[in-house]
Write a structure and sequence with these properties.
single chain, mainly alpha, 13 helices, about 80% helix, about 0% strand, globular
Length: about 300
């Protein structure tokens, strides 16, 4: 990877890692469902007038918007509102990698490799440790909702695979047209018209900056740069950079929000990161060890 593209990869990681701190700040100003509606409205408009719609059937565009956008962030914003720390959210959300493997096997008929199962086993142990220390800076409801968000992200990944090779930025922008109305309906139902009116009337500079960051930074800029990298390099070379997102998320939340992990949460975080690492790079190691094992048996 060239130095320029390596720098772009690091920009994406920092932008996506800081995203969780920004969300927490936004939730202090705007209710979760309304925050989701405003985020995706701003991500879609005016970008849809300048970015060509991807050539995908409408049903798949709707499926993408309802899973990776509406579903993921309805659960994630709610989780962080009811007690999921920003740093842990950035880590637990990465369990989407394992949900994606499961859904790919279920819906696409893809086979799970030994390294995938081994990484899943390690990460699952880490998630159990994190969940076991609920009540110490994290609520069980927040943890469960974050797991739900990860599963919705994974379903969105399956939709992305079904649509095939399309302009990812166009898919993100046009998919952002789907969630605003459902988000507004959820906000009206769960948060109430009074809360919506008050939040909009008192929308301050902090909330506006949060929305700009979420819509243009984390969504459009982040996915634009990520799709550029995926178009230039093999996925196996780009994917490991995603492991740095929770590193930035955990460190930035500790620095900016004074979040601290308990002993079990720290141990769980290490296991989750190790499981993700095995999942991404363990296949090559297993392939190298298998011939050696065969030679020994012979």
């Amino acid at each position: 990877m060239s130095p320029k593209d390596l720098l772009l990869a690091l920009v994406v990681i920092v932008v996506w890692g800081l995203n969780f701190v920004v969300i927490m700040v936004g939730l202090h100003e705007v209710p979760p469902m309304l925050l989701g509606a405003l985020r995706f409205l701003l991500a879609a408009l005016p970008a849809v007038f300048f970015i060509k719609r991807p050539q995908v059937p409408l049903r798949w565009l709707l499926a993408y918007g309802l899973t990776i956008s509406l579903g993921q962030f309805a659960f994630l914003f709610s989780a962080m509102k009811v007690g999921m720390p920003a740093g842990l959210a950035s880590l637990v959300l990465q369990s989407q990698a394992f949900f994606t493997l499961f859904f790919a096997a279920l819906f696409l008929g893809e086979r799970l490799r030994a390294s995938n199962l081994f990484g899943l086993f390690i990460a699952a142990g880490g998630l159990l440790l994190i969940g076991a220390q609920s009540g110490q800076g994290m609520t069980l409801a927040g943890f469960v909702l974050t797991i739900c968000a990860a599963s919705m992200w994974a379903l969105g990944n399956i939709v992305t695979r079904k649509v095939g090779k399309v302009n990812l930025v166009g898919l993100v922008v046009w998919g952002s047209l789907v969630p605003p109305l459902p988000f507004l309906a959820l906000s009206w139902w769960l948060e109430g018209p009074v809360a919506i009116e008050v939040a909009l009337q008192e929308l301050g500079l902090d909330a506006l900056l949060v929305l700009v960051y979420l819509a243009f930074g984390a969504t459009i800029l982040g996915y634009s740069l990520w799709s550029r990298l995926l178009s230039r390099y093999p996925a196996s070379q780009v994917a490991p950079f995603s492991l740095l997102v929770p590193v930035v998320g955990l460190s930035s939340s500790a620095l900016l929000l004074d979040e601290r992990l308990g002993p079990l949460q720290m141990a769980g975080a290490v296991l989750v990161m190790l499981g993700l690492l095995v999942n991404i790079g363990g296949g090559r190691l297993f392939d190298r060890l298998r011939p050696a094992a065969v030679r020994q048996q012979s």
